[in-house]
């Protein structure tokens, strides 16, 4: 075999060269290879690979078995000169690939170039690049790899985003008649995707198929009411009303459409029907192509939303003050929850009770509130008696805060999760989950989009979130001696601490770095600070 090899994960995982498949081993090797390609050129931890291979129940020998899988994978890849692409890098492995060596990096490069072309006004080239990217999909990914179900969902969402963007650009170019069949197929796959429905309705109407456009709306309404108990959102409703009265705004823009060459017929791959696509761990989120607001302009309403535009949830409790120390952990939170495609997006602060996990989480959340213009959701995951709160109960509260009427909230937990993730999609939102009991309680409360960020505190390390979902974890321990001294100075005033150093040392020593014990000692066992101090115990 000659020619360059390509690793394909946008469908069944395989390695091909000159159209011939190279055997790479069994399901374990394929799971490891897919995980490394999803996070190409980034280190993938052994824990992540264990989750990809075995899910939530790995054997005791999992780490050594992963090493064996990697060794076998290198041997198999040596046949196509890719064995050196897999490097050992603490705390796991790294696969160095350029965009032509694997379909997933190629997809990301093509969509990024399409974004640049669309932003520059070159929509014809943007569409061509998106079609080329969508041509890479070959079927449902990871069907036989249960440890990668979440990654498969992310691939699926990235594909649908690209499909919607391509359709929007096609509509703006006046190619509505070319995309009706493709959009119909994708809507059949994704009946709850309202943006796709709106694009199909507009394409049908502009193609002279008004009755079909109205039938598409009725089908959407029936499915939404039957499956999740909701009426169509405002975008679909207004578009339907304007189709009924043949509103002039539904006509294509006169500027739309660079003429379409006859020798460039649309292909079925323009909007492929295989359900798959990429956004690895939070990592490889595909760059969004700036879309032309064709459907939104026709409907003249914002995207689907249950809350009024002015409704921004701000549920963070007041942060404990004063606050001292934890500077390194605040930097870790900045890195893990930053607005970057390669940021984990979910952070777990874990440690013993009363060590200051909640105070740290609230400190960071308040300081970074401007990162989340669509608001902050907060839930204490234990009731006053200390028992875990049901995820269903928390979802009820979140949906209400997001503007969903109580009568529109379904009773079934799975349907609530679907509705919650639909409502928060494309919002820059922070979700703080305080004092989680275990991973099972947390998973239903995680948004499904790459724009939201989640901060969890727990006494449990929540290993399943780290292994299966790629969350980052940071232990929270006692305050360092200098931090304890700093907190006591803030509580009682620097003058008091300077004058009573022996008492101050006794208090910080007895507290053992526990901030709650230190606060209690400062308020109960110490004389009030002089009036010159910034705060007086017991005042």
Please describe what this structure looks like.
The chain has 539 residues and is an alpha/beta fold. It has 21 helices and eleven strands. It has helices at residues 27-38, 46-54, 62-77, 103-119, 123-134, 149-172, 176-189, 194-206, 210-228, 234-244, 294-299, 327-336, 357-367, 391-401, 413-424, 439-442, 463-469, 481-492, 494-499, 501-511, 515-524, and strands spanning 5-8, 14-17, 20-22, 43-45, 86-89, 92-95, 346-350, 376-380, 430-436, 453-458, 472-475. The strands form three sheets. A five-stranded parallel sheet has the order 8-9-10-7-11, with helices on both faces. Helix 7 (176-189) packs antiparallel against helix 8 (194-206), helix 9 (210-228) runs antiparallel to helix 10 (234-244) and helix 20 crosses helix 21. The radius of gyration is 27 Å and the shape is globular. The termini are far apart. The model is unreliable at 257-293, 300-310 and 526-539 (pLDDT under 50).
Q: How would you briefly describe this protein structure?
A:
The protein has helices spanning 27-38, 46-54, 62-77, 103-119, 123-134, 149-172, 176-189, 194-206, 210-228, 234-244, 294-299, 327-336, 357-367, 391-401, 413-424, 439-442, 463-469, 481-492, 494-499, 501-511, 515-524, and strands spanning 5-8, 14-17, 20-22, 43-45, 86-89, 92-95, 346-350, 376-380, 430-436, 453-458, 472-475.
